[in-house]
Amino acid sequence: MKGRRIRAAAATAVLAAALAGCGIRSTEVPTDFGPAPSRVPCVMSGSAIASQSGSGVPVEVFLVCAAQLVAVDRTVRVHEDKAATDRVRIAQALLDELAAPPSESEKQAGLATDVRGGVRVSGPADGDPEDTLRFSTPPEDLSAFALAQIVCTLADSAAAAEDQTVIMGGPGDDPLRRYSCTPEVRSRPGTVALPTKTVE
Q1: Residue 4 — φ and ψ, nearest 5°?
Q2: 121, 91 in Cβ contact below 8 A?
Q3: Given the DSSP bridges, would you call strands 166-169 and 176-179 parallel, antiparallel or unpaired?
Q4: pTM (2 decimals)?
Q5: Burial class (CB in 10 A: 0-12, 13-18, 19+), 94
Q6: Alpha-helical runs (H) found in the chain
Q7: What residues of the chain score a pLDDT lower than 50?
Q8: 10-61 pLDDT per residue, tens
């Protein structure tokens, strides 16, 4: 009996040492640390970034990689449109950039976009706040990833309001909402809802 206790104690000590060697603490409580880390790099090499730069205005857009948002440097051309404000022209240029297919180097890094082309941006309707952006597609009809990409990209640009929020609405007299981009949204855009406030 005594010998069995000694062997059991020795086995416990060996197991504890093995766990410590692996950097894992023993525990009697079941744990769930979520899915295994992705092997997708989500980062382009310096040469790939350099080859992508061109003439235009340098901007930062948010693409999707491994179920999170990743900032990517791009250059955009802001088209002249005398009927549109600077804010609207910038928002449209960024939206078009988000809808463009990722480059080959971006694809290799695991980057993708959920934003679809064809959406048009216009300025405020009568009675709207001056920094309103109205979309031809109601924002609530967009996927969670696409909406997060758009809001986080616009919030980090000259198209945003002074407090780096984005007032967005659909066409006509659709209700307006003020959207914010947070670190939580960037980390989990598919599961964390964008903070919003209804604009009266």
Answers
A1: -65, -40
A2: yes
A3: antiparallel
A4: 0.75
A5: buried
A6: 2-21, 46-52, 86-99, 104-108, 144-155, 183-187
A7: 1-38, 47-51, 53
A8: 443 433 333 334 333 433 444 333 444 445 578 875 544 444 545 578 899 9
